[in-house]
Amino acid sequence: MVDEKWTDKTKGSLKIKLVTRGKALTRIAALGFLLGCFSPITSAQESIRLIAVDSDSASSLWVRVFLEHFIPEVDRRLAETGNYVVDWNPAFGGTIAKPRGVLTSLQYDLADIGIVTTPYHPDKFPYYMLPYVTPFVSDDIGLISRTMTDLADKYPQIKDVWEGYNLHYLTSAGSIDTYNIILTEPVESIEDLAGQKIGGVGANLLFLEGSGAVGVSSVLTDWYNNMATGLMTGTIVWPEASAAYRLYEVAPYKLNIRFGGAASKAIAINSRTWARLPEEVQNVIQEVSYSYRDALALETGKVSEHAAAEYIEGGGTIIPVSEEDRHLWASHLPDLASLWVETMNDYGLPGQQILADYMQIMSDHDQPIVRYWGQE
After folding, report:
1. Helices marked H in the chain — which ranges?
2. Average pLDDT over residues 71-88
3. How confident is the model at residue 24 (pLDDT cuts 50, 70, 90)?
4. Which tens digit of pLDDT belongs to each residue from 268-281?
5. What is the pairing mode between strands 113-117 and 180-183?
6. What domains are defined for the chain?
7. pTM, whole model, 2 decimals?
């Protein structure tokens, strides 16, 4: 706007120029108003910071799939509306949580979302021991993971247990299609396992009951050194891990017993974090957790085929186990499932119903069941 008092004191030519300039500014302002009327109105995109945690690094399949599928898929789906964006802070490989420490890091707000290895916590989450008390039933990790998730939806008491630890359960998942035993020295028969020091995460050491082997509770990242130094003479392991961690270098003999698979992972998020998330973000994270579960199962199948070949290429030898010996091993195991049902009952969970549901689903899907747990 032109200052009238000041322009009155100027010569006419200057006054004309100033008035002309004022008209031009008015036209520009009017043009800006019109453009504003026809331009789309955009709202500010809200950024949400999430720390994702696991004690293992991206060399582990489930972490790699989380980085390559879970995070990008959440970002992609949120970008469809443009309302929210996640500022991811991945904390894998022990930067926040050491082995067995993911649960507490989530529980006490050190991280927001993570991959909990459930066999590390049988005293807290007995439900997730179900595949471990039903060996020789299935090696379809996709079916096992979906079934474990569906049963948790059917029996809300299972999710209530998570809430007691300030955690919101999203899904079960797994990269273990079947467990085998790898050894530092060859064996000629199952009887040769007597006295052997066999490692495991704790839950799968149940498979050794009645074999004469001595179970050694240990974690994946320690297995190589433990076998190299003689602290263990073998371990219970799945194909992908034996290749990813180059375990064939210290344990080149695989006893192909095929105990079956296990959904050993659960995706969980801190309850306070979950409560503050907008509904749209909650829905996307829940949906993508299922997508991650299925993607991990598919990738497990692909990786297992390559891992078996890599084990042999690395100097490993496969020791076959006959179906007769597998049935014999299964029959010599104690009634693991009944003991699990008693534990579930102690926690106020309907163990017998869940076990019956699980075995029925496996049977309905024509799984190669060697022992019908819960029907003895």
Report:
1. 4-8, 12-38, 61-65, 71-79, 102-107, 141-154, 157-163, 220-228, 239-244, 271-276, 279-313, 323-332, 336-346, 351-364
2. 98
3. very low
4. 999 999 999 999 99
5. unpaired
6. 46-177+263-304 (3.40.190.170), 180-262+310-364 (3.40.190.170)
7. 0.85
At 112, list the tokens. 């927001």
DSSP track, 283-321: HHHHHHHHHHHHHHHHHHHHHHHHHHHHHHHTT-EEEE-
Amino acid found at 192: D
The pLDDT tens digits of the residues spanning 212-257 come to: 999 999 989 899 999 999 999 999 999 989 998 999 999 999 999 9
Q: Which residues contact 76 (CB under 8 A, 6 or more apart)?
A: none
Beta strands 197-200 and 234-237, pairing class: parallel
Query: For residues 234 and 223, what is the distance between their CA atoms, to the nearest angstrom?
Result: 9
Token pair recorded at residue 252:
């080149």
What residues have CB less than 8 Å from 141, skipping those under 6 apart? 174, 175, 176, 177, 261, 262, 263, 297, 300, 301
